[in-house]
Amino acid sequence: MRIEYGTPRDIEVWMALVKEVRWNFPGLETQEKLDEHRDTVLKFMDKQQAICVKEGNQIVGVMLFSKKHNMICCLAVSPDHRRRGAASMLMEEALRHLDRTKEISVSTFRAEDEKGPAPRAFYEKFGFIADALIEEMGYPSQKYILYPVGSERRERK
After folding, report:
1. Are 96 and 52 contacting, i.e. CB atoms less than 8 angstroms apart?
2. Cα→Cα distances 35→21, 28, 29, Å
3. What confidence tens digit (pLDDT) does each residue in 5-24 have?
4. 77, 87 Cβ separation under 8 angstroms
């Protein structure tokens, strides 16, 4: 497995992975929403804020991150490639490009959501701490914060 920046030539393979996992992502229920997400991915690719893990010609993991907002925007790994290090590769790469002197945020599933345990444990492994309960795309979520390196703010709210 290798990590690369996503480019427009990857968009079809990238979106094949998104379609494979869309059941696990609120806001990707319709073809219209998938088309909107495709446009978003292309914008992130233009800013070099879209990274992917490839195995051969297949994309097995994707991440969008925002330097402007200092956040992880989207992380997905193919079910066939989970627990093999792809998500960690993506997170480590994104953290190299985000500002570690400021808070980095991500939103994920709430604790009581059946989809929540794996992503929450993953973010916690990287030092993210559960923060505010929020709603995104009409779905109950929870914000997680990675506090700046050396910050005293490490306790759970």
Report:
1. no
2. 15, 9, 11
3. 999 999 999 999 999 998 88
4. yes
